[in-house]
Write a structure and sequence with these properties.
Elements: H1 2-29, H2 48-62, E1 65-72, E2 75-82, H3 86-89, H4 91-94, E3 107-112, E4 115-120, E5 127-134, E6 140-150, E7 154-163, E8 167-176, E9 182-191
Antiparallel strand pairs: 1-2, 1-9, 3-4, 4-5, 5-6, 6-7, 7-8, 8-9
Length: 195
C-alpha cells in the first residue's frame, strides 16, 4: 500500500507542477505595454498615428513589393507592384488615432494578455473599435479598426486590418443618399524578397 500512496502523491505533485509551469508560461508569453498598467491617461494610450508614421518611414526605406488586389462591387483586379507613397497607402489607418485628447468616458478599455481593445461607448463616435495585438516581445502584431461615419449625405463603414510585414486590408461599405450602396476591398500582401 505504501508504494501506491507514494505513486499517487508523485502523480498529483507532477500535475500541480505542470499546471503551475503552464500558467507561468501563459502569463510570461504575452504582455502588452498597456496590460501592465491601467490605460486611462492620454500618455498611456497607444498612438496609432505614431505607429503608422514609423511604419511609413520604414516601408518607404525597405520599398517592399506588394501583391495588391482591389475588389469593387464583385469585380476584382490584382497585380504585383511597388507602392510609391506609403503615407497615402496607409492614410486610412493613420487617421484612426484616438490617443490625442483621449477621453476615458468615451471608450471602454480592456487589456488582456496580448490584446488592448478600445470600444466606443457612443454610436456616434467615428472610431468604434481599436484593437492592438502584441507579440511576446511587445511589438505590434495586428491592428484592427472599425470606423463609422454617418451624416445626412452618406453612411460609411470601414474595417481596417494591418498585420505587420504580412498584409493590410481595407473593407469599405458606403451608402450615399439617392445612390446605390457600394463596397470595395483593398488587400495588400507583402512579398518577401528572395535572397
Amino acid at each position: 500500500m505504501y508504494w501506491y500512496q507514494n505513486n499517487n502523491l508523485l502523480k498529483n505533485s507532477s500535475r500541480a507542477l505542470s499546471l503551475f509551469v503552464g500558467s507561468a508560461l501563459l502569463f510570461w508569453s504575452c504582455g502588452s505595454p498597456s496590460a501592465t498598467k491601467s490605460p486611462h491617461k492620454t500618455s498611456d494610450i497607444f498612438s496609432v498615428d505614431s505607429f503608422f508614421t514609423a511604419e511609413v518611414s520604414r516601408l518607404q526605406q525597405l520599398n517592399p513589393a506588394v501583391l495588391k488586389s482591389v475588389k469593387k462591387d464583385g469585380e476584382k483586379e490584382e497585380r504585383e507592384l511597388k507602392i510609391g507613397s506609403w503615407k497615402n497607402e496607409l492614410s486610412a489607418f493613420q487617421s484612426a488615432d484616438i490617443s490625442k485628447n483621449f477621453d476615458p468616458s468615451l471608450y471602454e478599455v480592456k487589456a488582456i494578455d496580448c490584446v488592448t481593445e478600445f470600444t466606443a461607448k457612443k454610436k456616434d463616435l467615428q472610431i468604434q473599435i481599436l484593437r492592438i495585438e502584441f507579440d511576446r516581445n511587445e511589438k505590434v502584431k495586428h491592428i484592427h479598426i472599425d470606423k463609422k461615419i454617418a451624416n445626412t449625405l452618406y453612411d460609411s463603414q470601414e474595417k481596417l486590418d494591418y498585420y505587420s510585414d504580412s498584409l493590410y486590408r481595407i473593407v469599405k461599405l458606403q451608402d450615399v443618399q439617392g445612390l446605390d450602396a457600394n463596397q470595395y476591398e483593398i488587400v495588400g500582401k507583402f512579398i518577401s524578397s528572395k535572397k
